[in-house]
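Note to self: keep these together.
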Amino acid sequence: MKKYICLLILLEVIVFLTALEIIDSKGISHIYDNAELYKLETQELKTTREKDGIVRLNNWQGFRFDIWLKQQKLGDFATIRFESSDRYLVTLEKSEFDSLESYIVIAQDGIPFEEYMLRLIFPTLREMQWIKGLDRVVLENFHPLIRPTRFFLLQDTLKKYTLQKDLKPFVNIEGYYLSDVLMDLSPAEEKKVILYSRDGLKQSLTYPLHLQGAVLEKTPEDLYNLKSPQIPGGMWMKDLVYLQCDNYALISEDSINQLIRLAKILHWETTPEMQFRIVYKDSEELMNFTDALAEPQVFRGALYFEIF
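Structure:
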């Protein structure tokens, strides 16, 4: 009897690993067997990708995912998150998703993928926003990100920690364990972390799920790269300029003048009447929002600043 129960559990796990789970905005899980998805009518899709100066032409077979998703009638949503079996994440706002064609491809050059693997492709987006081994889609209602109550300068804050070498499990790098920084920003056991890089990549991750053991690598140019053993290398971020953990944030000094753009990207509520309160060691200064952004040198040496 015990062996029979174990066999049933094993079969359930195998089925789950070869199925696409879609969680609607009400939190209800819907399971679609990959083998059944492979039976849907497919069409040919061609993409070109350039890497190291070489242009590659790929022929795929699959079906329009965006059209199929509407046919499932799973309700409205504001953001859609795609997750792979190895925790690669891609998040899009509904308005962006609706403006794109997306495909679930199940074969390349007529050869089906092994073990009913699903691959998600956005032909007009960069390959880093494609998903290999798609196994989970989460439909979420939109909740604006809370504007931090306090901002600290990224470079000055990191100087407070001991620079370490060969941070396990990584080698030949120096930097800081992200957990040390996050613990000082929020006492919560589970923390929501927003990351933004200079090249415009935004990630919304959770500690410890995605960031246990993560490090901030310091480069010879005094830039900071995020690396985490919990997520694929394609999600690691180069030249991090903004890190928000719950209500506190770190921002690179040379990115402060981009706060208006950042506010739009992170969906903060803004008004023309907003002001900065800039706190130094022995004084503080109040400045109009746009005036301060026009003179970013006023933030140099600040302990922190607030927007109100």
